[in-house]
Write a structure and sequence with these properties.
4 helices; alpha/beta
Length: 107
């Protein structure tokens, strides 16, 4: 947020980052949870320190209209944090859920 200030000495993001960011998109929802720990270990080995998460996740985050499930995302975010990998959270709108596109008035 350009021009924002806070407890960072008046510096704006990204100037508050003390490192060069390196990473890419990470779509753990497309893989079994059993491989996530290995994914994060490989990220650290490759010096990845920032991934975007949740890009295609709307259908999992809201499997039915108005019913939300953030459990898997909480687990991913906690695991990334524990592994020293920062996350840029996406909106998840790249892949709308089937219930939305099947609704006649969704256009």
């Amino acid at each position: 947020m350009a021009g924002s200030t806070g407890t960072n000495g008046g510096r704006s993001w990204p100037h508050t980052l003390d490192l060069m960011v390196f990473g890419g998109d990470y779509n753990p929802e497309q893989w079994p949870a059993e491989v996530w720990a290995e994914d994060i270990a490989l990220m650290r080995q490759a010096k990845v320190n920032l991934v975007s998460v949740g890009i295609f996740s709307w259908a999992l985050l809201e499997p039915e209209e108005g019913r939300f499930d953030f459990g898997w995302l909480d687990q991913v975010m906690d695991s990334l944090h524990a592994g020293g990998v920062r996350a840029a959270l996406a909106t998840g709108t790249a892949a709308p859920p089937a219930w939305l596109v099947a609704t006649p008035d969704s256009t």
